[in-house]
Write a structure and sequence with these properties.
single chain, about 280 residues, alpha+beta, Thrombin, subunit H, 6-stranded antiparallel barrel, 5 helices
Length: about 280
């Protein structure tokens, strides 16, 4: 107590000054409108600065909770976006299937629409993967086409995906013919350009011209007759002078494959029962 009294006595002059200054300010601002207006403006500016600083500090401490909330909202939006993309993809596939009108030659067949999810064109034996499998009715030895022509043949199936032997595979030989002719040969990829293949063993008596269309022969349960394959761009003699070899520009652009159709043959089992020697030693399809 004594120390407190001594403190006030020692600094009494300052406290007296501050008291008198405060009383003077009150009398000045109360009795003069101009000074009162200046005081209110200055006080408002100071208090505004104080409030802004306080809000900045409190806002900083709330950033973590705000960020967590934004992340949760972003995750929900991403999930919704993925869901919408899947729905749009499925709608596109259904619309694609609805717009395809099968030829009369394809009447015993059903299309299973699929999307290519993996593809290769740079190897000597190329494959592609589609997003349909056994649960969707896809089985080995089913043909695959796109809106332009032949794509390949299914050889391995999972429940939800399947692997397809691409037409750009040197092990695949396809029975084809010149449109308008009954004589057929074997179409095979020579491992060079992904846009070109060779129709071999075409009999010399077959009449054709540059620009003629090459189609499937129909001599298999995989592809029906009449599916376009390519266009003749060049002719040459085969090793055997009795046959031609035709260079064929493929109609399918394998570099841009997206949506394809798997062909299901309703008569496949019946044909296989009737034709006991369906698969020959040459490996033709």
């Amino acid at each position: 107590m004594r120390q407190l009294v001594e403190f006030f006595m020692r600094h009494g002059a300052w406290f007296t000054f501050l008291l008198l200054a405060g009383i003077s300010c009150v009398m000045l601002f109360r009795g003069n409108p101009y000074q009162q207006a200046v005081y209110m403006t200055s006080a408002g500016a100071v208090s505004s600065s104080v409030y802004n600083a306080a809000n900045s500090v409190t806002g900083y401490f709330h950033l973590r909770s705000i960020n967590d909330d934004l992340q949760e909202r972003l995750s929900a939006l991403e999930i919704e976006n993925l869901s919408l993309r899947r729905r749009l993809q499925r709608a596109d596939e259904m619309a694609y299937a609805d717009t395809v009108t099968p030829d009369s030659a394809l009447t015993p067949y059903r299309f299973i629409t699929a999307r290519v999810i993996n593809n290769s064109i740079a190897h000597s034996n190329n494959f592609l993967t589609i997003n349909r499998g056994s649960d969707d009715g896809v089985r080995p030895e089913m043909g695959v086409v796109d809106q332009n022509g032949i794509v390949g043949i299914v050889n391995v199936t999972g429940r939800h995906t399947a692997r397809v032997i691409s037409l750009l595979n040197s092990d695949l030989r396809l029975s084809c013919k010149v449109k308008g002719s009954d004589a057929f040969g074997s179409l095979v990829w020579d491992g060079r350009s992904p846009r070109l293949a060779v129709l071999e063993e075409l009999p010399r008596h077959v009449e054709f011209a540059i620009g003629d269309t090459i189609i499937t022969s129909g001599y298999s349960v995989v592809f029906p007759e009449g599916i376009p394959v390519g266009v003749v761009v060049e002719q040459s003699r085969d090793v055997d002078d009795n046959f031609y070899s035709l260079k064929v520009e493929l109609l399918t652009d394998f570099a841009t494959l997206s949506t394809v159709r798997v062909i299901e043959n309703f008569l496949k089992e019946e044909i296989e029962e009737v034709e006991t020697d369906l698969v020959n030693t040459s490996g033709k399809f």
